[in-house]
Amino acid sequence: MRYILGIETSCDETAAAVLEGRRVCASIVASQVDLHAQWGGVVPEAAARQHVERLNPILQQALDEAGVGWTDIDGIAVTNRPGLVGALVVGLAAAKALAFALNRPYVGVHHLEGHLYSAFLETPDAPIPFPHLALIVSGGHTELVLARGHGDYLLLGQTLDDAVGEAFDKTARLLRLGYPGGPQIDQRARLGDPTAFRFPRAKVEGWNFSYSGLKTAVRREVERLEADDALDEATVNHLCAAFQQAALEPLIHHALDAAHALGVDTLTVVGGVAANSALQAQMRAACQQAGLTLFIPPPRYCTDNAAMIALAGYFRLRAGQCDDYDLDAYANAPLAHRQSDTSTAPNA
Ligand SMILES: Nc1ncnc2c1ncn2[C@@H]1O[C@H](COP(=O)(O)OP(=O)(O)OP(=O)(O)O)[C@@H](O)[C@H]1O
Ligand SMILES: [Mg+2]
Q1: Exposure winner among 131, 190, 258, 324, fewest CB in 10 A?
Q2: What pLDDT, on a 0 to 100 scale, did the predictor assign at position 178?
Q3: Quick one: angle between helices 233-262 and 164-174, nearest 10?
């Protein structure tokens, strides 16, 4: 199992990658962000159409950059859940066609399992440290997961309403900062004072998260400022800084608390929001103080990419696993379940 081809089309990024073992030879990501910006969010039908147009050239580009031919590919990994079904089936159909034509095994990969492995794309020579805690913070998910081994995941906590990335995007839209909002808020927050406004930190049971109260609190503040004609650029910066701090604190607090309670010494932060500069700085400081080893992927592997899908698939293919041609795409699918005994989780 030398060369693995990864394919990712679950949302608005058309991506292909080639790994040699665990080492990334090529990772190509064609973002559709400019297309969807006009609508302020991802339009599923438009996303699927763009995947159809772009996937073949992107696959060829990945192979060319890796310097390999089609027959060099030993196995294929493709995201088949969760995501936009119309978008997922484009990648899945391509993976099945290639697997059939090349007579190679292929596996369907859970998108969040890909994010989970993204933390280890930069350390191909070191063993994956199990157990470890994974804080998955993306546009559609906010989950705290205990990874006990390959494919063995336990859900410790998750958002009860909005995902944290969604909260960044909705707040940015409210402040008319454009789409996607996460990077904009990150930049504006550096110019603002996080103590200029005090937004609520959600009180939820266990290691769960909630962002709807924060979203409403920011909206009310913005409406009040607009009524007073006081929403100037400096105030927007302060709002970004205060929102960001309120959004990040529960993530850091729960992750460190869970690591301490479970006696786990390694933590990963993955998904698009892991690219946030304040989250990275605060998590690094907190982990250093707590004596935890922290893995955060570089920004290009925080957001959607196919290298992470290929790495998740690599371990399955290497273990001899392979999916049938009747494999489906699913809009919703949990990565991990909770253990029936949740006595380790604290009550807020
Ligand atoms: N620097 C940043 N600060 C905060 N948020 C960010 C930053 N960069 C990206 N994001 C957010 O990350 C999200 C995109 O991440 P990702 O591509 O992992 O999500 P997704 O694939 O759409 O969702 P999921 O993985 O849950 O299906 C967006 O919500 C975006 O605003
Ligand atoms: Mg993602």
Answers
A1: 324
A2: 85
A3: 170
